[in-house]
Design the sequence.
């Protein structure tokens, strides 16, 4: 028998190499037989497969995170997309960052606000309703062109509220100041089929 560590010839029956002290039976059993080599190859193949699967999961997660970021979309388009896709709040938060504040609005309902490139994104509840407050008022007719008005403007607490139906089964409420009724200060978007 040959020692696998120091390569000297050893008589049969020894459990340890007399020169280097390596335990011989464990090593020779592991490397000696065909079954042991097959087990080693399968173990390596499994390790490579698990590593590749981990890389794939990481790549898919990174792709999802990049889709959830605002990118070059304007705030209203981004919020409408979020309302249609309805990502979970923790997933959205991992993509866009921590909230800047949370505000109670009524009956235990709260809106959590995040800073985005051209305003503020508000997430109400478990990501069922999305708010967008632009940095500067936006002309109403420029944004809601693909939406159908469902109500006449109603004045509530100094703001005009108008409801719309939109593509992809989206509902939209537009808020504008009474002083500038055609300059939108907030958009609220939700998916109708979810309610």
Sequence:
């Amino acid at each position: 028998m040959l020692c696998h560590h120091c390569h000297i010839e050893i008589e049969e029956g020894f459990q340890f190499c007399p020169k280097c002290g390596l335990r011989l039976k464990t090593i020779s059993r592991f490397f000696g037989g065909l079954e042991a080599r097959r087990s080693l190859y399968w173990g390596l193949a499994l390790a490579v497969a698990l590593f590749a699967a981990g890389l794939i999961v990481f790549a898919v997660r990174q792709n999802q995170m990049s889709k959830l970021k605002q990118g070059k979309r304007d705030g209203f388009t981004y919020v409408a997309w979020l309302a249609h896709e309805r990502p979970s709040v923790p997933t959205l938060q991992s993509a866009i960052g921590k909230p800047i504040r949370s505000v109670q609005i009524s009956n235990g309902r709260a809106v959590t606000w995040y800073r985005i490139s051209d305003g503020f994104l508000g997430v109400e509840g478990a990501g069922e309703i999305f708010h967008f407050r632009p940095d500067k008022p936006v002309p109403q007719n420029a944004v809601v062109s693909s939406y159908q008005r469902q109500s006449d403007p109603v004045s509530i607490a100094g703001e005009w509220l108008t409801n719309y139906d939109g593509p992809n089964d989206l509902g939209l409420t537009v808020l504008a100041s009474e002083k500038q009724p055609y300059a939108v200060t907030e958009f609220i978007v939700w998916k109708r089929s979810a309610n």
